[in-house]
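Progress report, Aim 2. The chain analyzed during this reporting quarter is listed below.
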Amino acid sequence: MAPEPTGTLHRTATGRDLVLTRRYAAPPEEVWADLTESERTARWFGPWEGEPGGAIRVRMVFEEGEPWMDMLIETCEPPRRLELRAVDEAGSWHLEVVLTATGEGTELALIHHLDDDADPGMVGPGWEYYLDLLGAARSGASRPDFADYFPAQQEYFQRLG
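Predicted structure tokens for the chain:
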């Protein structure tokens, strides 16, 4: 059974933000470690190397060919906000993650600040997949299958656009 997409699209003064949220039964410091410690990011996104708070390289282990992607950490405010930028053959990526403590744990908001010509149908399913990979890594569940996300969720995200 394919997972239901959860992303929303918000118009901003500078463009569009694709926003996806998840909740975790853990304090923000624990979720922050999943986002920033290389051995933990390796379980759901990929390991990274470089200077914390500066330029890093991330190995995209769940992508075909496991390519490395150069990223720049623009903002690092532990344990609540991380902002990154990257450019690759698919376009530019301006990403922000905001963690908020809740009564039950932590809410994670992933915000992809979309370029004007970006197609939400091409990026939304991937972020749903990666956030579900994070959830699986945190809980010990089996990894989701990308085929359940793309192209299954593509139309949902294109309608948002």
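The mean pLDDT is 94. The CA atoms of residues 121 and 155 lie 6 Å apart. These observations will guide the mutagenesis work planned for the next reporting period.
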